[in-house]
Fold Helix-turn-helix transcriptional regulator.
Amino acid sequence: MSIIVNLDVMLARRKISSKELAEAVGITAQNLSILKTGKAKAIRFSTLSAICRTLDCTPGDILEFQKDDAEPD
């Protein structure tokens, strides 16, 4: 089971830079980079809400569940 972060896709669709999003959301560029690269272990609902508000999207536009092939159904 994997959670895929599609934040780069949403940034490109909205034509917003990572720096602009980080400033709008109130997190550091480093923490946004960790989130973008899928290295984050968790995300606060308040941060996710701020990202969605800024990008005018839903959490499902940013986070995607991908089942591993080896997992049973």
